[in-house]
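Appendix B, record 7
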Amino acid sequence: MDPNRVALIDDHEIIALAMREAISQIPELSFAGVAATVDELIAEHPEAGLVVLDLRLADGSSPIGNVERLVERGAAVIAYTSGESPYLLRLVATTPILGIVRKSDPVAVLVETLRQAADGRAVMSTEWAAAIDSDPGLDAAALSVQEQQVLRLFATGLKAQSVAATMKIAVPTVEDYVRRIRTKYARIGRSADTKIDLYKRAIEDGFLPLPDSGQ
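Structure tokens (predicted):
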């Protein structure tokens, strides 16, 4: 798979035209094509490493199942939605997506999300943050003060060496804290296996500010 090859899963022709135009504004990315279903994408555009997924497809497939299938194949996924269902947004916010973009967002928002996602970075939009913030079913991980600080720093993309230097502790100590954090989240059923997972957990639990929150 090529992370710079972008495919769209959507069954509306006008969306495909807009997506092609957006991707043309990013020199490092290319448009692989459009598919109406995940099965069609796998068959016709298997090289696409970055997938923009409409959450409501005409085949009635589960958006959560679609995300999981694509991620299992090694693709990065951006959810593309009209945002009419807060419940659906809350569900998809818990999956390994890299971002949520509304179809009503300016093209510049889509372009920036694609650019960052191609680098493997999660893009926390206001829609994603709101979906997380409105989820009442998030159990606390009971992190210590030191673990919280490690999570804040590590989840923003700093490497263990930088976290260690900032906190004036040894690198193995940072690595031990990260292992403990992941274990605590795993115990309450909240995945923290990757840096993207840790970033989501930090947003969910208030260790990092919500976008545009003014914090």
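Remarks on this record: The CA atoms of residues 32 and 172 lie 42 Å apart. The first strand starts at residue 2 and ends at 9.
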